[in-house]
UniProtKB/TrEMBL annotation:
Keyword Nucleotide-binding: yes
Domain of life assignment: Bacteria
MF GO annotations: ATP binding; phosphofructokinase activity
Family in the record: Belongs to the carbohydrate kinase PfkB family.
Chain residue ranges for the region called Disordered: 320-344
CDD domains in the cross-refs: FruK_PfkB_like
Gene3D superfamilies, per database record: 3.40.1190.20
Carbohydrate kinase PfkB domain segment(s): 38-306
Keyword Iron recorded: no
Pfam families, sorted: PfkB
Protein source organism: Geodermatophilus sabuli
Matches recorded under InterPro entries: PfkB_dom (IPR011611), Ribo/fructo_kinase (IPR002139), Ribokinase-like (IPR029056), Tagatose/fructose_Pkinase (IPR017583)
Keywords per UniProt: ATP-binding, Kinase, Nucleotide-binding, Transferase
Protein name: 1-phosphofructokinase
Length: 344
């Protein structure tokens, strides 16, 4: 397969060393556990996306705050991953994943070091520099303590003049602030999971996963807020892609789950790689689900290579026609349901 053309730039404002601790059996609180062989990988959601993109041979640069002597910098250099770092004094945090043999994972995430205003400005400047001429910029993951929750919205606005398309994958307060900042801060692509979509719409996660109409109505509200394309990942139930080309759903092949850490990030990478290759929406979704399933079949936070990804095993179904473009600010449109949980 030819290497996709175009560059992807990822920002990981709160990077981590991801330490996966392999348990020999189900976790028993209060006991003594003798671990199976464990692993440590450079992580943070944007780093995971970049690792998967790089594994496919595509052009990617990952932007993050880290000192030159930080272990994450050395780990990324060993992987050959192009890196643009802004130096900070504090070490990168460590996140721990307790992985049980049946695929159950428990995550223990450290908060990360606070970034001062000067460091945030330096990160924004480096990101803007590398975004010029790029196909995609990915803003991904949590924000460090003390960072204004609207920072992602500010970055989306600041990146508009680069010509790059912008994808965002975050949760909780930064996600709510992003979608509450107005259409000019809406990304070209948003990748929520069911929990995050519930945070945005007021529906329950159980309702969104059990009722396809509720999920579609909830996704429609994101388009109303200015998001052009939504990639909704649903774990073992697959994913939904909604945008100007139409709405599609996909189910993954049977997968023996070893770890779900980074599976959503690999799904986003799969979508972006297919977009670089010029694939239409249905094939972008197929690639996303195939990458997510391949990631879940691997231990720890390992990312798949193209040889480990099987798009042909993913079933894709057309759900409905194209989503109309977002209405200009100050106008209304009634052709898309406006409320997630009240429309069936």
């Amino acid at each position: 397969m030819s290497t996709p053309a175009g560059r992807i730039v990822t920002l990981t404002a709160n990077p981590s060393l991801d330490r996966t601790l392999a348990l020999p059996g189900p976790l028993e609180r209060g006991g003594v556990v003798r671990l199976a062989p464990s692993s440590t990988e450079p992580g943070g959601k944007g780093v995971n996306v970049a690792r998967a993109v790089a594994a496919a041979g595509a052009d990617v640069v990952t932007v993050l705050p880290a000192g030159d002597d930080d272990p994450i910098v050395a780990a990324l250099h060993r992987l050959g991953l192009p890196l643009a770092s802004v130096p900070v004094d504090s070490p990168v945090r460590t996140n721990y994943t307790l992985a049980e043999p049946d695929g159950t994972t428990t995550k223990l995430n450290e908060p990360g070091a606070a970034l001062d205003a000067g460091t945030r400005a330096a990160l924004a400047a480096v990101l803007h520099q590398h975004a010029a001429g790029a196909r995609w910029v990915v803003l991904s993951g949590s924000l460090p303590p003390g960072t204004p929750v609207a920072w992602y919205a500010d970055l989306v606005r600041a990146l508009r003049d680069t010509g790059a398309r912008i994808a965002v994958d975050t949760s909780e307060a930064p996600l709510l602030a992003l979608l509450g900042a107005g259409p000019d801060a809406a990304p070209d692509l948003l990748k929520p999971n069911a929990e995050e979509l519930a945070q945005l719409t007021g529906a329950t996660e159980a309702e969104l996963t059990a009722d396809p109409d509720a999920a579609l109505a909830a996704v429609a509200t994101l388009h109303e807020r200015g998001v052009a394309e939504v990639l909704l990942t649903l774990g073992g139930d697959g994913a939904l892609l909604s945008g100007p080309e139409g709405v599609w759903s996909a189910t993954p092949p049977p997968t023996t789950v070893r770890s779900t850490v980074g599976a959503g990030d690999c799904s986003l990478a799969g979508h972006l790689l297919a977009d670089l290759a010029g694939a239409p929406a249905a094939e972008r979704l197929r690639s996303a689900v195939a990458y997510g399933a391949a990631s879940a079949s691997l231990p720890g936070s390992a990312v798949p290579t193209p040889a480990q990804v099987d798009p042909a095993a993913v079933a894709v179904t057309a759900v409905r026609g194209p989503v109309p473009p977002p209405a200009p600010p100050g106008t209304s449109r009634t052709t898309v349901p406006a409320a997630g949980r009240d429309v069936r």
